[in-house]
Amino acid sequence: MVDYEHSPVTVDGKRAIVVGGTSGIGQAIALGFAAEGADVIATSRDESKVAETAAAIEGRGVETARVTCDVTDPESLERVRETAVDEFGGIDIVVASQGAISRATVQDISDEEWDFVTDVALDGVRRVTQTFAPAMAEGGSIVNISSLSARLSMANLPAYTAAKGGVEAFTRASAKELAPDVRVNAIAPGFVITPQNAETYADGTEKRARIDERTPLGRVAERDEIVGAAIYLGSDAASFVTGEIVTVDGGFADSAF
Ligand SMILES: NC(=O)c1ccc[n+]([C@@H]2O[C@H](COP(=O)([O-])OP(=O)(O)OC[C@H]3O[C@@H](n4cnc5c(N)ncnc54)[C@H](O)[C@@H]3O)[C@@H](O)[C@H]2O)c1
């Protein structure tokens, strides 16, 4: 029998970076980590959002630092790494939650639009891993935010779908290479309300009704409902979990009707 003094499902005392951590799901994860007692840097391109999120992190009684980054710019990621090492003395958890989307069809999508989406969503994940993994402490954990789109096709999202499929394959590839020092997993959220899509998924819209009907749990997710999976994967409770995709979708993907 395992006799825990404390639950291992915690990120208390860990040092985390959340890329894309100043909005939506990433911000919820950054604030959830902080509430659990982790020091957290929440970074994105937006200086004012970085400052706003850092103030909210400090309000939870933990350390943070204000630093911007663009995942298409490796030097900016290096600045985040240096800041984390200088301020926190190391890195235990890295979450890649940056997002980019295009609604162009397979036939119409241009090279520029395809490259824009994949550069942020897929190459961005690769650059985040390449930048932070060498500085991570033994037992470190990388959590990439994928999407249900990686396994379920949706119309007018070819670049996003391909990028997320790539994120999941890259998650498994880097889990293999970075073991045993660093674990690498992904979370695949289903439909999650964030400021950007609040209108599309608003109660009463046709789209919302269709999602609610298809989802066994009967609704879309609040962004806070993705946080628990990130805490688990970042924590020592997941010490034997790597290369895994954790789906958080209210049962959508595995339900026929
Ligand atoms: N909202 C959903 O329903 C949903 C579902 C499945 C997966 N996801 C995924 O979750 C992640 C977060 O999405 P969200 O809905 O919270 O979106 P969001 O737009 O609220 O957050 C995205 C974050 O990424 C940052 N970002 C964008 N481009 C960047 C760049 N070049 N460099 C650094 N940061 C950059 C933004 O500033 C923002 O902080 C994305 O990977 C998205 O694909 C979202």
From TrEMBL:
Cited Pfam families: adh_short_C2 (PF13561)
Q: What keywords sit in the KW lines? A: Oxidoreductase
Q: Name the domain of life.
A: Archaea
* E.C. code: 1.1.1.-
Which GO-annotated molecular functions does the record name?
A: oxidoreductase activity, acting on the CH-OH group of donors, NAD or NADP as acceptor
> InterPro entries, alphabetically?
KR_dom, NAD(P)-bd_dom_sf, SDR_fam
Q: Where is the Ketoreductase domain?
A: 14-190
Query: Which family is it part of?
Result: Belongs to the short-chain dehydrogenases/reductases (SDR) family.
What is the protein name stated in its UniProt record? SDR family NAD(P)-dependent oxidoreductase
Organism, per UniProt? Answer: Natrinema soli
